[in-house]
Amino acid sequence: MAKFEIFKDVRGEYRWRLRSANGQIFAIGGEGFKQKSGAENGIAAVKRDAVAAEVMDLSDSPLTTAVSSKMEPGMAKKKLPPAL
Questions:
Q1: What pLDDT does residue 84 have?
Q2: What are the DUF1508 domain coordinates in residue numbering (predicted)?
Q3: What's the distance, Cα to Cα, between the start and end of the chain in Å?
């Protein structure tokens, strides 16, 4: 069974991640919180909102990564092509 985990990062901020039944991490909250309740609220929001979340297929849109100014946690930083 999948489980949410709350942990402290190297800055001492509370974060959450979602781990699958086989132990792999497949979601990480993108924000650190000073209070544990912030991470708990983030988990509650994911549980509430994911049920009705729309799936958007951006795989055929090469400019979607160039438009984003933030990298997802754990993604390798690479030079992006200039925006058109």
A1: 43
A2: 10-57
A3: 44
